[in-house]
Structures are given as structure tokens and as C-alpha cells.
Design a protein that fits this description.
Elements lengths: L1 E4 L7 H9 L7 H20 L4 E8 L2 E8 L3 E7 L2 H11 L4 E11 L5 E9 L7 E5 L2 E2 L3 H14 L4 E10 H10 L5 E8 L1 E2 L5 E2 L5 H6 L3
Parallel strand pairs: 1-10, 4-5, 4-7, 7-9, 8-9, 9-10
Antiparallel strand pairs: 2-3, 5-6, 11-12
Helix pairs in contact: 1-2, 2-3
Length: about 220
């Protein structure tokens, strides 16, 4: 499995990440959502470089120009609800892609133990397509695994899957490597080493869904 961690090199993503993490700046929900979008846009551009391309002729007002254009069908899949702002960044670049949405939530049996439930799926066929599966926070990796399997079970197997997250824990990375196909590519803006007793990434940034859309 290939893992791309943007934090390994300095880039403008550092600025967006610092604002997402900053407990003062992140209270501005509009800016929080926009920073998720901007990281999604950068990842979308980088993922576009991995696609297959074909040459097509484009008619301009003054002639014909051969252009190399993406040939792979792309489906943008997002885990509700925290993924919506992140999803918009990918959609701004892959504006002709199909879209899929799936819900996943934690049901706690006590303060620290929880099960993950998947309830809602709206998706086109995924068979032999390129799927970009986005969720800002990759904490344990279990939600991502369950959503991937639920989508594939109901909509077919993608040719390749790009898992995109803003922050992942080292534990989640190892989990994803063990439970998703080898041809999965994992795109990350940052990696944090610790999960707390509630399964949240530390230092992380808090609850991305609440920060983007308000407390539930």
C-alpha cells in the first residue's frame, strides 16, 4: 500500500493545518470548512496525476488542439457528516465525477467502548472505477474499513481506491494497511501518534464534524 504524507515536506498545507488545529481560529466554522476544502483541492490535484489519460481533439475558435485528458471514471465517496467540506474540495477539481455518500457513527456502550454502525448509502456503481474515499479524521481506521466494505458489497469493486484524510493516527494507518486492498493509496496531510481513551486523535484538532457544522 502506498502512503503519501504531505507533512513530510513543507508546503502551504502547513498553514491550512495550523488553522484547522488552532482552537481559536477553528471556532470560525466558515474558515474551518474552507481549510478542509483547500486541503481537498490540493489532494485532488495530486491524485489527478496518477490517473490514466487519453488524447482528444478540442475545437477552439481558431483551430484544433490535441489535449491529454483524464480517461478514468472517478467516484468521490464521502463519510457523513464531517467529510462534506473535505468532499467539496475534491468536487471543485473533479467536477465531472460521480458522487457517493455513506453514514457511519459511533455507538458507545460506556465511556470508552463503542461499535461503529453504517446505515445510509447513496452511490453509483463502483465497479472498475477510481474511488476517492474521503474522511477528515482517520482515528482507528475501523469506520473507513466498514464503509469501504459496505460500498463494495452493494456497488461493486473499484479498480483502485484512494483513501484521503486530513489527519490519521499511526494506529489507523497500520489498521488500514491490514484491512484494505494492497492497491489502495492513502493520502494524508498529517500523522499524529496518539489515540486517547475515547478513540480520538491527539493532538488532532477535535471533532471535525462539530467544528464544521455545530454540535450534534
Amino acid at each position: 500500500m502506498k502512503i503519501i504524507n504531505f507533512a513530510e515536506q513543507n508546503s502551504i498545507i502547513n498553514q491550512f493545518m495550523s488553522e484547522l488545529r488552532d482552537k481559536g481560529i477553528q471556532q470560525d466554522r466558515l474558515r474551518f470548512r474552507r481549510n478542509l476544502e483547500r486541503i481537498g483541492e490540493i489532494m485532488a490535484y495530486e491524485i489527478s496525476r496518477t490517473l490514466n489519460y487519453t488524447t482528444r481533439e478540442v475545437a477552439t475558435p481558431l483551430g484544433i488542439k490535441a489535449m491529454s485528458l483524464p480517461a478514468d471514471p472517478v467516484v468521490l465517496a464521502t463519510i457523513l457528516r464531517a467529510g462534506l467540506g473535505f468532499h467539496q474540495g475534491f468536487l471543485s477539481y473533479f467536477d465531472q465525477a460521480e458522487n457517493a455518500f455513506i453514514s457511519a457513527y459511533r455507538q458507545y456502550s460506556n465511556e470508552t467502548d463503542f461499535d461503529i454502525h453504517v446505515e445510509y448509502i447513496a452511490s453509483p456503481s463502483l465497479q472498475d472505477k477510481v474511488m476517492i474515499l474521503a474522511d477528515p479524521m482517520l482515528a482507528t481506521g475501523k469506520s473507513m474499513e466498514l464503509c469501504y466494505k459496505a460500498l463494495c458489497d452493494s456497488k461493486g469493486t473499484p479498480a483502485v481506491t484512494h483513501v484521503a484524510s486530513v489527519i490519521a493516527s499511526t494506529q489507523a494507518i497500520e489498521y488500514i494497511k491490514q484491512h484494505l486492498p494492497e492497491n489502495t493509496v492513502l493520502w494524508l496531510a498529517a500523522v499524529d501518534d496518539t489515540l486517547n481513551a475515547h478513540g480520538y486523535i491527539v493532538p488532532g484538532l477535535g471533532d471535525a464534524g462539530d467544528l464544521a457544522y455545530g454540535e450534534k
